[in-house]
Amino acid sequence: MGLVRDVVILGSTGSIGTQALDLVRANPDRFRVVGLTAGGSNKELFEHQVAEFAPRYSGLGEEASVEAAAEECDVVLNGITGAVGLRPTLAALEAGRTLALANKESLIIGGPLVKERARPGQIVPVDSEHSAIAQSLRGGSAAEVRRLVLTASGGPFRGRTRDELADVTPAQALAHPNFAMGRVITTNSATLVNKGLEVIEAHLLFDVPFDRIDVVVHPQQLIHSMVEFTDGAVVAQIGLPTMLVPIALGMAWPDRVPDAETPVDWTKAADWRFEPLDDTAFPAVVLAREAGTRGSTAPAVYNAANEVCVDAFHEGRLPFTGIVDVVGTVLAAHDVPSGEQPSLDDVLAADSWARETAAQTITQTIAQIATKRGT
Ligand SMILES: NC(=O)C1=CN([C@@H]2O[C@H](COP(=O)(O)OP(=O)(O)OC[C@H]3O[C@@H](n4cnc5c(N)ncnc54)[C@H](OP(=O)(O)O)[C@@H]3O)[C@@H](O)[C@H]2O)C=CC1
Ligand SMILES: CC(=O)[C@@H](O)[C@H](O)COP(=O)(O)O
Ligand SMILES: [Mn+2]
User: Fold this and answer.
1) Is residue 342 included in any domain, yes or no?
2) pTM over 0.80
3) Which atom of ligand 1 has the smallest separation from the CA of 197?
């Protein structure tokens, strides 16, 4: 084991942040918290965390997270949710810190802007599928890789037709079959937007073209993802469906943290199921592939429109199927800027445009629904 690692945790009050702090508590000889930030919606918990870990730096909000990301440390864990994680991600990379990246949105919307600031190995994926792929690729060469296979739970509505999704409620959407996660990612798992984002994330992290990234529904989520090699061999990472291994690896990479998680019990009989995606009931992955293939600001538009729709769904203003419908409408209306690579301003402008256009589209959708119902 190496020296104790100094860790900055952004989004410390969330699902990822609190699990990271559990790992720090369990491994005081490996990790020391030197920075903590959160959004401010749970100040009491944040104050408790600051009192317990006594970090050098603590603060609330995006600016505090940008400052914390540049603190002297070994690793920054970005556990913020949403596009607001982009500037902290860029700040951590620019400061030369290893970035344990749970905040997939920042990579997806920043795309080349994030990648060009990262030296090889500087970003360690924490998203479970991408951690699984990174683990499966250890010791291999990129030339040996034929395909990446992301696993998907299928969410709480797996097996339903589009018509059967019409009246599902926010409470039902938040009942993820395997993971206890924040509201946005849990809703995204239900719509399959999470898997769409993860296809783009895999393309950016591992430089594999979209037509060589597959998704298979695996409801048990014991296989966290797989790599198919050119000789036909498939290497998978298997473990219980929790985030402890990906977070521990993110903070300790390339080391493993002993006993981070209990392994699968192979003495018990079990059935593991695999199904193809239903792109008719759940068109989010097809739409994400379109956004990713267009590139430039299109992934930022997909993500921003989705964030607005997720809020509208939870506020009871938009039906569940309206989320991906509106994202599709906004994406279709988006003209990516000319030029090879978007600037940070281009990305932020596309994000704002998508939020406004999504809000208008939601208003129109609500009016259409009311007209149909005759109200
Ligand atoms: N949870 C999981 O198992 C997994 C999560 N991820 C990804 O990890 C990220 C975090 O997810 P999760 O932990 O579930 O989300 P949560 O909603 O549980 O937590 C989000 C965290 O971000 C903080 N936050 C929100 N806005 C800001 C802001 N403006 N500035 C600073 N901090 C802010 C919140 O603070 P507060 O609430 O106190 O305001 C909270 O600490 C997401 O990108 C998600 O997609 C990926 C794989 C698995
Ligand atoms: C734990 C994790 O990485 C989440 O992204 C999780 O995988 C969600 O799974 P689904 O989106 O497949 O439901
Ligand atoms: Mn994931």
Assistant:
1) yes
2) yes
3) 45
